[in-house]
Amino acid sequence: MNARNLLSRAARALHECRWLPAAAAVVAATSLAGTHAWAADPAAPAAATRVAFDTSEGRIVVDVRADKAPKTVANFLQYVNEGFYDGTIFHRVIDGFMIQGGGFTPGLSQKPTRPPIASESTNGLKNVRGSIAMARTSDPNSATSQFFINVVDNNKLDYPSFDGTGYTVFGSVVQGMDVVDKIRVVPVGQRGPYGDVPVTAVVIKTAHIVK
Fold first, then answer.
1. According to DSSP H, which parts of the chain are helical?
2. What pLDDT is recorded for position 27?
3. What is the pLDDT of residue 141?
4. 5 CB-near residues (< 8 Å, 6+ apart)
5. Which one of 4, 68, 101, 170 has the lowest number of neighbouring Cβ atoms within 10 Å?
6. For 20, phi and psi rounded to 5 degrees?
7. Is 125 in contact with 154 (CB distance < 8 Å)?
8. Which of 142, 79, 134, 138 is closest to 116 using CA atoms?
9. C-alpha angle 16/98/3, rounded to 5°?
10. pLDDT digits (tens, 9 = 90+) for 15-30
11. Which residue, 193, 198, 197, is CA-closest to 15?
């Protein structure tokens, strides 16, 4: 498939329900910056809140940065504390790009969410390997519960990106990148209207704040 057809196919996918726009995947895949360790903001405060995702593939722990993305972190932690993520899946996995979860059940039913939040993509945090960011539709201010973890440096997702806004990074993986790397290479396929869905569900058993 040539580049024009790829971009056309990506554009048609922009309105998939809360699916990270496929156009972002095309842009990222054509300009990967490498697979460096987390380096979005090494000066993370010592008191950053940590959230553990206990998944069917192992534990992933992230630091979230309320000092950089206060609205995004408050929204994310509310979903965590409500148990919203328990039993959801990583529903979209693209090796060489990212793993996305936080909104669908294993049967690919989308969970109802609270209203969307405003973008905080200008906070200076970068979409590098190991960073966690909010998924959204083509509307920059449409993020709700879904998030993604970058598995490579996706600088093309940073503000201003290809749409003038980019994607809000709000933390980083501090434990379990080996688990992220296990997930990024699981077999995937098409399920109904959704592509890049793991053949065997990768389940978030629980998500909770850890000290």
1. 3-12, 22-29, 70-81, 177-184
2. 43
3. 97
4. none
5. 4
6. -50, 120
7. no
8. 142
9. 65
10. 333 455 444 554 444 3
11. 193
Nearest Cα to Cα of residue 18 among 79, 94, 102, 105? 102
* Average pLDDT of span 100-129: 97
pLDDT score, position 36:
37
Retrieve residue 91's tokens: 């529903």
**CA–CA separation, 136 and 52 (whole Å):** 22
Structure tokens at 74: 């408050």
- What would the two tokens of residue 107 be? 């049967």
What separation in angstroms does the CA of 37 have from each of 31, 32, 42?
Answer: 17, 14, 11
The closest of 76, 62, 25 to 149, measured between CA atoms, is: 62
Task: Evaluate the CA torsion angle 151, 148, 182, 186 in order and state its sign.
Answer: negative
Strands (E), 66-202: 88-94, 98-101, 131-134, 147-150, 169-175, 188-191, 194-198
Q: Where are the beta strands (DSSP E) in 102-187?
A: 131-134, 147-150, 169-175
Average pLDDT estimate for 175-185: 98
Instruction: Answer whether 0.70 is exceeded by the pTM.
Output: yes
Would you state the structure tokens that stand for residue 146, as one six-digit string? 């879904």
Q: Which domains does the chain have, with CATH numbers?
A: 3-210 (2.40.100.10)
Place of tokens 């699981």: 186
Alpha helix stretches (DSSP H) within 49-149: 70-81
